Amino acid sequence: MSTIESKDTTLPIYTAKDFTTDQDVRWCPGCGDYAALAAVRKALPGVNTRKEDFVFVSGIGCAARFPYYVDTYGMHSIHGRALAVATGVKCANPELEVCVVSGDGDLLSIGGNHTIHTMRRNVDLTIMLLNNKIYGLTKGQYSPTSEQGKVSPTSPAGSIDFPVNPIAIAVASGCTFIARSIDVDMKGMDEIYKRGIAHKGTSFIEVYQDCNIFNHKAWFYASQKDTMPENTIKVEHGKPLIFGSEHNKGIRFNNGKPEIVNIGKNGITESDLIIHDETNMFLANMYSQMAHPEFPEPIGVLHADPSKPTYNELLQNQLDEAKSKANSKQLDLQALVTGNESWEVK
Amino acid sequence: MTTHQPIEKTSAVLDSVVIRFCGDSGDGMQLTGGQFTETSAIFGNDFATFPDFPAEIRAPKGTTFGVSGFQLQFSSEDIFTPGDRVNAMIAMNPAGLKVNIDDVEPGGIIIVNEDEFTKGNLSKCGYPAGYNPLDDEIINAKYTLVKVPMSRLTKDSLADSGMGAKDINRCRNMFALGIVYWLYERPIDQTIKYLNNKFATKKNLPEVAEINIQALKAGYYFGETSELFPSRYRVPPAKQEPGIYRQISGNEATVLGLVTASQKANKPIVYASYPITPASSVIQGLSNLKRFGIKTIQSEDEIAAICTAIGASFAGDIGVTGTSGPGLALKGEAMGLALMLELPLVIVDVQRAGPATGLPTKTEQADLLQAMFGRHCESPLIIVAPRSPSDCFNMAIEAVRLSVKYMCPVIYLSDGYIANGAEPWKVPDVNQIPEITITHPTIADIGEDGFRPYERDPQTLARRWAIPGTPGLEHRVGSLEKEDETGNVSYDPDNHDKMVRLRAEKVARVAESIPLLEIDGDPTGDVLVLGWGGTYGSITTAVHQLRVKGHKVSSAHLQYLNPFPSNTEEVLRSFKKIIIPEINLGQLSFLIRAKFLIETHGINIVKGQPFKVETLAERIEEVIES
Fold it and tell me: Of B131, B134, B130, which is closest to residue B144 (Cα–Cα)?
């Protein structure tokens, strides 16, 4: 680790501009991806890592163009495979800061398998899921997060697919950092992203992202000034679950289930409310099931458990241990190639 | 049969012998065959083995589809195959006998465990009611049938051991091995050492080691005292070049080749793979070699495996993935990515019989066209193919060397036959193996226009391998078409045409870095037998036999399939007839015809089995005479 420390002492002072490439950004004007890109460029100077040590990996889709616009090392791979590629990058060189940015089709449909397995292995990656609930690049077909009944070019009579729940998948896969943000909330996204990168293990950040061409307003119930306070709830570690434009609503347990209550009514006080505990996976599970319109949707760091070792760390440890335990004969290539059962012909 | 000869029999000296052990897949036939091989190797014979087992791990006991076999030829001369006709077979049950008896030569020895030839077992493997092959007059007349009550004798010999019936029963294979050791005058010490190490040292079961050793000895002494055999046989050691030798299977050699390449390149290998027969033993072997810096990753699927290997190469390690044909199909798109990214990558394909799940444990060489063309659009890759178990060592190193030199994926086409088969191998001096030189650019290499990741070496056309963590060379690569030199995304039509040609030209230029195609026999003539991959042993043996018979026939064997060695056309045009035997329906023929407009005569047998030399020689002769 000393090499990293010595590198850090001479870390240049970066600005967002240092993470901006000379390539023209080719997203549609008004796309929510711009906000995510801006937030990432803004966050990167603050995470104490040299720009050459970042690798951005993506799959295919609108969101997957992301690496071309961030002036670090990057790879725009193939559809669905970003996490598998990123796993290889991180395992080869664990000192790199590996970030994946991709969309709902990429991470939850064609690449869904890799999402589950990357999370369960706890590879030290930061995943940003730009969820716009639609297939943008192929022009508007419903996606695995689209609501049932979605009318789209491939579902003119309404989609008969029920949507997948990204946070629930993360919980089920044992993801060690689970967060949610909204494209319009630059400040929130910046903070969450920094924490996601700092987290050792798989960080999964779902971003509600507006596709203003094919699925405009899909998130407006949560992203607008007048809707956000009522339909979302910002969770903060150690603080009670409070929301509402008047800051007067809360969530408490009733018979093991969350229930919306009004603070100050029927004798309800803040002390009756659930206190957010990032380390509590049971709460994360509950958050994954809190959905509009029944509940406000939780925003923020829903779960963070730094205690689980990372895959790349364990892999490296096994290598180091094998090396340190081996005697000189075991480390000799000639002895390996010759094997233990050789014979001599004279 | 009966004999009345004294115990001190004289030995008949033979040049070579083919024996086959067969029985239930739970009977330990692979282990038994492996032990006989090890002993013969140390004795100094040349040998070649052919393990042949079902895909089912424990098929219902006693059925024909649960039969596991292990064949080996051991010889006092140079041999290249495990042999066609079996001289001696050990059948542990009726199903083994039924499945294998037709491969035994007339007059050949068949040793059976007669205790297993019960009514129930005979009916399980489909013999008609009331029929017992051991009583069949034709069989008794045709073969030297030796009936040994192995189960009972094993039990009796271990009666005082205090061990349970199950443990005792499992020693029958050692009893059988003891008989065969006696018959072929082999020492039993090697196997005693093995049993002690396996059971006593590693598993801490000294009592299990002891009963196995006792059964082995009991079998040996039974051979000596029973007078069941007319003679013992001796196969003297082969005349081999002086040196240190070991036994090696193809997958073992692939593992050692990859580790050696990693050491020679001074770079870690990341081997990502999803278990699949017959490639699994490669990842298993490598995962025991972490001390050499080998990182193995058991991925969630075939696609993840290749993508993880690609990620590792991007980060500066050597990414390798391994699979068999079905997995290669799944990796198709990602191979295209790797060639578009122009990164090193080795894809090990241990071919098996297919399509679909096919015959997972059986061999075939029918992935050649998939390796050539199994990707969308213009996507040529380098293809190499080892020709024997030990050649896997050299070709694995070649695959890595070419991949990093040309910044291009390499498909390595092994097959189930050479992967599992073993032969003696003169161990190379690793110091004599050339280093694999790799350089990564640094900030000092940036030209006036900044860093251009797709600038190429003028000779090899390889782009530069700049790795993350290098200050000043930050760049993006991707699956979209790139502008020449800068690597930026480009939709320009002329640029695309140029890049397609550059990628093809780069692979074509690999011909400058590979050895010429060698001819075994006269350099010109009437007939050339051309092969590739794992059929080398059969083809070479068949052609040598035909030459002894007086035919003018040469052979050549391709280890490089794309590109072909630069003299390939010249070699082919030096002969009037080109015969191409393949375990497929003519895939190399297709490529040769397409590339050189040369007529070829295919010999194509697709049975999931290696070629029999006899069949091959007959078929070649037919073409010669046609």
Answer: B134
DSSP per-residue codes, B193-260: HHHIIIIIIIS--HHHHHHHHHHHHHHHHHHHHH---S-EEE-PPP---SEEEEEEEHHHHHHHHHHH
Instruction: Check CB contact under 8 Å for A342 and B295.
Output: no
Question: Chain B neighbours among A 215-244 (CB < 8 Å)?
Answer: none
SS3 at position B378? coil
Q: Which of A85, A95, A315 faces B295 most closely, judged by CB atoms?
A: A315
- Per CB-CB distance under 8 Å, the chain A contacts of B477 are 74-76
Contact: B300, A86; criterion CB under 8 Å: no
ipTM reported for the complex, 2 dp = 0.96
Q: What is the mean pLDDT of residues A147-161?
A: 97
Tokens at B476, concatenated: 């993006």
pTM of the model: 0.94
Contact A342 B334 (CB under 8 A): no
Give mean pLDDT, residues B340-346.
Answer: 98
pLDDT at A4: 41
- Classify B247-432 by CATH class: alpha beta
Contact A117 B300 (CB under 8 A): yes
Give the residue-averaged pLDDT of B533-557. 97
User: How is domain B11-234 classified at the architecture level of CATH?
Assistant: 3-Layer(aba) Sandwich (3.40)
What is the length of chain B?
Answer: 626
For the stretch B230-285, pLDDT in tens is 789 999 999 989 999 999 999 999 999 999 999 999 999 999 999 999 999 999 99
Identify which of A331, A333, A345 has the shortest CB distance to residue B430. A333
Helix (H) or strand (E) holding A314: helix A311-325
- Domain A2-218+309-320: assigned CATH number: 3.40.50.970
For A303, what's the count of Cα atoms within 13 Å in the CB-facing half-sphere? 28
- The string over B162-198, giving b where at least 16 C-beta atoms fall within 10 Å of a residue's C-beta and e elsewhere, is ebeeebbebbbbbbbbbbbbbbbebebebbeebbbee
In this structure, whether the domain defined by B519-625 belongs to CATH 3.40.50.920 is answered with: yes
Domain boundaries, chain A: 2-218+309-320
Q: Identify which of B268, B308, B336 has the shortest CB distance to residue A87.
A: B308
Whether chain B has a CB inside 8 Å of the CB on A330: the answer is yes
Query: Using CA atoms, how far apart are residues A78 and B335, in angstroms rounded to an integer?
Result: 10
Give me the pLDDT at residue B69, please: 94
Nearest to B328 by CA among B400, B382, B380, B274: B274
Interface A–B counts its CB contacts (< 8 A) at 205
Is there a contact between A320 and A215 (Cβ–Cβ < 8 Å)? no
Nearest Cα of chain A lies from the Cα of B25 at a distance, in angstroms, of 26
Residue A317 neighbours by CB under 8 Å, 6+ apart: none
